[in-house]
Write a structure and sequence with these properties.
Distance between the termini: 39 Å
CATH architecture of the largest domain: 3-Layer(aba) Sandwich
Number of domains: 2
Number of helices: 7
Structural class: alpha/beta
Strand content: 5-15%
Strand order of the largest sheet: 1-5-4-7-3-8
Number of strands: 8
Largest sheet: 6 strands, mixed
């Protein structure tokens, strides 16, 4: 199942019900890197099976470590010790080659509505021991859109980040506590301090930050967007 070493720390995988569907689209992590992040995606396809078939097709040259179906079924495509091809171009916290630094999880959702309860439960079941095994802090569970502003938009505005945050599986989301005058330079500095270091136009950066913290907000930069500085 993929390439690369499988550390003894991954004993916990035996406790999670996994389907196996090995993908050839993977390789060794570069520069002896190990997972320090988890990147969440949505499949944007009709079915989870269609997504799995695409992620295992050498022609498409894409993959992920896991796919979670709406029913809650978890399919592993690539071993966690290997480098799956899910993140692509982008950057987070000033770090590139996120494929070598992360575990990629595809979620069975088209981006047009809420994620299924069974899917979310399985995601939590998978993340809880995964973060512990690799010593990944909750703040390092990010969306594809976080590391690739303007290029990617998943897991999209319907993903329940608050739910993960309440369980210590993701960073807290913005809650506007003060009124600040909108200022693009200050907004960009605050976003970069949180990890949004990928090159992006102002509007793309705003969209990316909002997808994570104010998912249904629209319009120009406003005072509520400036609350990034209030996060711990």
């Amino acid at each position: 199942m993929g390439s690369g070493p499988v550390p003894a720390r991954l004993w916990w995988l035996r406790l999670v019900a996994l389907h196996q569907h090995p993908s050839p689209n993977c390789g060794p992590r570069r520069n002896a890197l190990t997972p320090r992040f988890v990147v969440l995606h949505y499949t944007a396809m009709d079915t989870a099976q269609a997504a799995i078939e695409r992620l295992c097709d050498p022609v498409h040259e894409v993959s992920a470590h896991y796919v979670i179906c709406k029913t809650g079924a978890i399919t592993q495509l690539v071993g966690e010790g290997a480098r799956a091809w899910h993140a692509g171009a982008g950057e987070w916290q000033g770090l590139d080659d996120m494929n070598s630094r992360s575990i990629g999880i595809e979620l069975d959702n088209d981006g047009q509505g809420p994620f299924a309860e069974a899917l979310m439960h399985s995601l939590e079941t998978l993340l809880t021991p995964m973060l512990r095994a690799w010593d990944i802090p909750p703040a390092n569970v990010i969306g594809h859109s976080d590391m690739a502003p303007g290029r990617k938009f998943d897991p999209g505005p319907w993903f329940d980040w608050d739910r993960l945050a309440r369980q210590g599986l993701a960073a807290a989301t913005i809650r506007a506590t003060q009124t600040r005058t909108p200022d693009w330079d200050q907004f960009r500095k605050q976003a970069q301090a949180l990890g949004y270091t990928a090159s992006a136009e102002d509007t793309d950066l705003l969209t990316s930050v909002r997808l994570r913290h104010r998912p249904h907000a629209q319009g120009p930069l406003c005072a509520a967007d400036m609350s990034l500085g209030d996060l711990p």
